[in-house]
Design brief:
By secondary structure, the chain is mainly alpha-helical. It is about 85% helix and about 0% strand. It is globular and about 45 Å long.
């Protein structure tokens, strides 16, 4: 009985995190498309917020530090957006491939990281693409979990 209550609590927090991540990513993706000239503020703010969400939902501090450090680098050094976001996407993609078994998003993240390195001039569109795909994927996972869990 106690084990079941603990399991339900973890799933509930996971669903809250998924919906919060989804809306944060979707809003940031739309802002990236509307205001590409402010990408350093938008992407940096998103990464900082993502790190805070990770901390709020008790994700290990090592994983929470990755978006926070990347966000700070982007806000402080805007010229490093392509390299910093590509590295973040690469790490995020590997994390999805190996830790969470969400292979589709992991492969998409790695492909977008490579495209950012190849063509840094289109960074706003690649960032928006990743965020919109990530947001929609989280909404789908949340919806499936809500009705199956």
């Amino acid at each position: 009985m106690i084990f079941e209550q603990y399991r339900i609590r973890i799933q509930h927090r996971s669903h809250e995190r998924q919906i919060l991540n989804a809306f944060l990513a979707l809003a940031t993706g739309v802002l990236s498309l509307i205001y590409p000239n402010f990408l350093y503020l938008i992407a940096g703010g998103y990464l900082l917020a993502l790190g805070l969400v990770f901390i709020l939902f008790s994700i290990p501090s090592t994983l929470a530090a990755v978006p926070i450090v990347a966000g700070l680098l982007i806000v402080i050094f805007p010229e490093l957006i392509p390299v910093t976001f590509a590295i973040f996407l690469g790490l995020f993609g590997l994390m999805f491939l190996f830790a969470f078994q969400f292979a589709f998003l992991g492969v998409i993240s790695l492909i977008l990281a490579a495209l950012i390195i190849i063509n840094p001039g289109s960074i706003a569109y690649f960032v928006a693409t990743f965020l919109l795909i990530y947001g929609v994927a989280n909404l789908i996972r949340w919806y499936r979990g809500k009705w199956t869990g």
